[in-house]
Amino acid sequence: MLRLRLRWKGGDRVVSDVDPAISVTQLLQDSLPGAMGQCTWKVKSGYPPTSITCDRSIRDSGIRSGDTLVLEPDQDAESRFIVHEIPADNSCLFNAIAWALDQKSPVSPERLRESIIDAVLSNPVEFNDAVLGKSIEAYCSWILDPSSWGGDIELAILTTKFGIVISVIDIKTLNFYRFGESCGYKEEIFLCMWIQCISY
Q1: What whole-number distance in Å separates Cα of residue 106 and Cα of residue 123?
Q2: Residue ranges of the domains in the chain?
Q3: 148-196, pLDDT tens digit by residue?
Q4: Which of 10, 87, 128, 165 might form a disulfide with 194, Cβ 3.0–4.6 angstroms?
Q5: Rounded CA gap, 59 and 65, in Å?
Q6: CATH class of the structural domain 92-193
Q7: CB neighbours of 60 closer than 8 A, spacing ≥ 6?
Q8: 174 with 32: CB under 8 angstroms?
Q9: DSSP state letter for 149
Q10: Phi, psi at residue 60, to the nearest 5°?
Q11: CATH dotted code for 2-73
Q12: Measuring CA to CA, which residue among 114, 94, 79, 105 is closest to residue 163?
């Protein structure tokens, strides 16, 4: 069994007890969460880094215990995933969702904030002061401010409003969160969170 390090832009992961008989593709699918494991990657190893054929076994690829595999998204491969970087401002969550929804339901980040207020005001029992961490009036004023960050509450509201699953991958820790997965929604968008968990 091998011990390997997987490294990509914004994070890395150490993987232990790796069977050298499996393919590199299988390694990535088993070791990376959710959408990341299903992406098509260009993989390099060694020094200087040389490309590895992912459908070959780890053993046949010449990978040894302790090696680091460097992962880069394969922009040439056919994929349903599109990488689009969002400016790291305080509205990055809303900008990211607005961009991801553009083809289905064009909407501005400002309108997303207003939609959250509509949901909170229409259901004060669910979104009470304890849940919001402040009074409803104070929360509504706060979330309208472009400098206010979005988080779990806002993601939960938006997944219901648009009838989609919103999946968030923390690139640094590889934690994977899915909002709306128990609701039976058929469409899903993926957001990657990085820069010490403060930007989408």
Answers
A1: 25
A2: 2-73, 92-193
A3: 989 999 999 999 999 999 988 877 676 778 898 888 888 878 787 654 4
A4: 10
A5: 10
A6: alpha beta
A7: none
A8: yes
A9: P
A10: -70, -20
A11: 3.10.20.90
A12: 105
